[in-house]
Description:
The protein has helices at 13-41, 50-74, 124-129, and strands at residues 2-3, 10-11, 77-79, 92-97, 100-107, 118-120, 137-142, 145-155. It has 3 helices and 8 strands; from the N terminus they run E-E-H-H-E-E-E-E-H-E-E. The radius of gyration is 21 Å and the shape is elongated. It is α/β, with parallel strands linked by helices. The chain has 2 domains: 2-78, Helix Hairpins; 83-155, Transcription elongation factor, GreA/GreB, C-terminal domain (Chitinase A, domain 3, Roll). Helix 1 (13-41) runs antiparallel to helix 2. Strand 7 and strand 8 form a beta hairpin.
Amino acid sequence: MLNNTLNNNSVTKEGLESLKKEYSLKLKERDRISIEINLARAEGDLKENEAYHAGLLARDINESRIAEIEAILENYTVVEVKQNDIVQIGSTVTVKVNEIEKVFKIVGVNEADPVEGKISGNSPLGSALLGKKSGESLDLKIDESSVKYDIMKVVN
């Protein structure tokens, strides 16, 4: 489904493809972990079998992520990016803050990865940027201080 409103299930087209790829990899990982658990179980005493307990932990973490992805894929909205100079979900935005240029991609909640410069449109900075244009500025209050962001470029 295509839409241009933001909710907790909003994803970009790229984000949706990434989730589908991750889901496929997690299913393959499920099979690998199952084999490792069975091999460790065959070694005997399970109380002190580190490989067995590590396998169970890996299985639990993997299954948790599979369930998360399934929940997202059952109810998502692909955000349609309009070709204009207004910041929206899917935009790549170059800002200047404290004389340093930074580039952010505005994404849905489930795609956010600040280390990769992907920030959620629901985050304080992401929501403050939404609807702004190149050349505009915004002051984002952080704790008791304010940080000025100058929007240098918007690519949709």
